[in-house]
TrEMBL record, chain A:
Entry protein name: YwgA
Origin: domain of life: Bacteria
Organism of provenance: Brevibacillus borstelensis AK1
TrEMBL record, chain B:
Species assigned in the record: Brevibacillus borstelensis AK1
All copies of domain HD, residue ranges: 60-176
Protein name: HD domain-containing protein
CDD domains: HDc (cd00077)
GO BP terms, alphabetized: dGTP catabolic process
GO molecular function, one term: dGTPase activity
InterPro entries xref list: dGTPase-like (IPR050135), HD/PDEase_dom (IPR003607), HD_assoc_2 (IPR045509), HD_domain (IPR006674)
Length: 174, 431
């Protein structure tokens, strides 16, 4: 009951703040690929995998007063920042969510910017394709982002790093 | 280039929404006759809405033919305005016809419990060992993959993708008109003829002539009304809750090693989480209803009760729920437990995000391409900048939280306990 909501809140609590709607979308998508138990359905959109369900759920959490959403406007660009408030923390007391080792991967993802996470999630979306085909898809759909092959390699290495972090037996670096 | 393979004469299906569905291509005719497409006759388009609107029994087969017909008419409108090869036109028609072929029985609830996405099955049906795959391959080895890419929105021609998936596309136009027709409500109606007449091919997708703005406004309003009046109807949501609980209970019992009186053979792959394409295709709503009939006589009190509720339409009642009242839920869980009513199966909060509301947004988070109008000057303008009606409803969130519970079970409890629960729920009499 409201577990799907609790997972999103817990993710935000884990990192303290998520800057950007796109970033939050990509973090949840990547987390799903790391076998973290998120339920939201994703489809391919303009900026890669995108979940309408997640957008609605975050809106709902703000409406419920569990998340704070701050909007910063720089020219035509709006940046949304999400943080947990006291009511949200209270809510979590009634809904236990444990990502286990996934928490480290969530923190690591939050260190990266949304442009890079967009690339990583797009790589994962086309992961079933042979490398050359996957690369071609990224260059076609992400032409405006001008990703380089070097960045794709960095994205693949990042995915491996996250997988390592979520493997049992990994010792967290403190 | 592949030559058109046409039928000797055009075939038509009588259709209550579009009057007729016209088929001229042999390939389309063969796809319709494939086993995987015929299976869609046994899957309702609106899931459990028939409990609320008894006319809403139409199938995904009806809808898929309707989307195909709208696509066929869009392509007619585009004749002379943009060049599409025969192969590209067929790609559009196949994607329209097959876009829902991966749907399973009561897919909204079933997918949630058994954790899969029908989109993955659509891809598997198009590209796996199926009749549909063999028919599509007649257009070329990679044709099934290209159709799958159009449906998954990963095809590189944005215009073609937008015809089947955008904020005003063949899929949405058909389901709004069809669902309105079969449920008997008036809200979903809009003038599709006018919309098709003012639709134009654009660089990044379809656009609409400014002169047709009012027809597009009407479509947006229909969508808004249908969501709140039909798709979000609280009784339909109650049936979905009961259905979800049935699947959840069956799964739980299976994991506990419960000895079912008759092994649920066709569901075992799902319970074991090892589903092959053939297993998936053998499932439809008649199979699910058959197991419910068996389970209503099972030895498990929860499973038999939930199945009887669904089959006899003895659904859960609901009250409005304040999502900030965490204490209420915790208290009710305790009270239900003390009454020996398992809250995991008999108490559920249902929220609007459990059924995504497909409202029109002007693309504020830049993920959805907005509806664009072509002004007389040739300039493109986003719809809500010109339409006050659309501006009034676009991007406006409405939220709705309901708490579902079995009123009859609560009423059957000893007066003191029943009174306490009803007091917390805020219902003092059987609603």
């Amino acid at each position: 009951m409201l577990r799907r909501h609790a997972k999103i809140i817990r993710l935000i609590e884990t990192v303290g703040e998520v800057s950007g709607r796109k970033k939050l979308q990509k973090m949840v998508y990547i987390a799903k690929h790391l076998d973290m138990d998120f339920d939201e359905r994703f489809e391919f959109h303009m900026y890669g995998p995108y979940s309408e369900e997640l957008t609605l759920r975050v809106d709902e959490l703000c409406n419920m007063g569990l998340l704070d959403e701050q909007v910063e406007t720089k020219g035509a660009i709006h940046m949304y920042r999400y943080t947990l408030n006291d009511t949200g923390r209270d809510f979590l007391r009634f809904h236990e969510v444990d990502f286990g080792l996934g928490e480290q991967a969530i923190r690591r993802m939050n260190e990266e910017n949304s442009r890079f996470l967009e690339l990583v999630s797009t790589i994962l979306y086309f992961n079933h394709l042979p490398y050359e085909e996957m690369k071609a898809k990224i260059f076609t759909f992400k032409s405006k982002q001008r990703y380089t092959e070097e960045e794709i390699q960095k994205g693949l290495a990042f995915i491996e790093e996250l997988r390592e972090l979520t493997k049992a037996g990994h010792t967290p670096l403190i | 280039m592949k030559q058109p393979q046409l039928l000797d004469e055009e075939k038509v299906f009588k259709d209550p929404v579009h009057s007729y569905v016209h088929v001229r291509d042999k390939l389309i005719w063969d796809l319709i006759n494939s086993a995987e497409f015929q299976r869609l006759r046994r899957i309702r388009q609106l899931g459990t809405s028939f409990f609320t609107f008894h006319g809403g029994e139409h199938s995904r087969f009806n809808h898929s033919l309707g989307v195909y017909e709208i696509m066929r008419r869009i392509l007619e409108t585009f004749e002379g305005r943009i060049h599409l090869s025969y192969e590209e036109k067929l790609l559009c028609l196949c994607a329209a016809l097959l876009h829902d072929v991966g749907h399973g029985p009561f897919s909204h609830s079933f997918e949630k419990v058994f954790r899969y996405h029908h989109e993955d099955w659509t891809r598997a049906i198009l590209q796996g060992d199926t009749q549909i795959n063999r028919i599509l391959k007649r257009m070329g080895e990679d044709f099934p993959k290209r159709v799958a890419e159009v449906i998954a929105k990963t095809y590189d021609n944005k215009l073609i993708v937008s015809l089947i998936s955008s904020q005003i596309d063949a899929d949405r136009m058909d389901y709004l008109l069809r669902d309105a027709y079969y449920t008997g409500v008036n809200y979903g109606n809009f003038e599709i003829e006018r919309i098709l007449r003012v639709m134009r091919p654009g660089e990044d997708g379809i656009v609409f002539k400014y002169s047709g703005m009012h027809a597009v406004e009407d479509y947006i309003m229909s969508r808004y009304q249908m969501y709140w009046q039909v798709y979000f109807h609280p009784v339909t949501r109650s049936a979905e809750v009961v259905l979800r609980k049935i699947f959840q209970r069956a799964k739980e019992l299976f994991l506990q090693g419960f000895p079912f009186r008759q092994e649920p053979t066709l569901l075992l792959p799902f319970l074991n989480e090892q589903v092959e394409l053939a297993d998936y295709l053998s499932l439809d709503e008649s199979v699910i209803l058959f197991y419910m009939q068996l389970w209503r006589n099972e030895n498990d009190a929860v499973l038999k009760d939930l199945c009887a509720r669904f089959l006899d339409r003895n659904l859960f009642k609901y009250v409005e729920y304040n999502p900030r009242d965490f204490r209420l839920l915790a208290d009710l869980k305790e009270l239900f437990q003390s009454a020996d009513i398992d809250p995991a199966y008999y108490l559920e909060v249902d929220t609007t995000s459990d059924l995504p509301y497909d409202f029109y947004r002007a693309g504020e988070d830049e993920e959805r391409i907005p509806i664009m109008l072509v002004m007389p000057s040739g300039e493109l303008t986003e719809l809500s900048e010109k339409s006050e009606i659309v501006q009034a409803i676009s991007g406006k969130r409405r939220f709705d939280y309901k708490l579902y519970f079995p009123m009859d079970k609560v009423m059957a409890l000893p007066e003191e306990l029943s009174g306490k629960i009803r007091d917390r729920l805020g219902v003092m009499e059987d609603a």
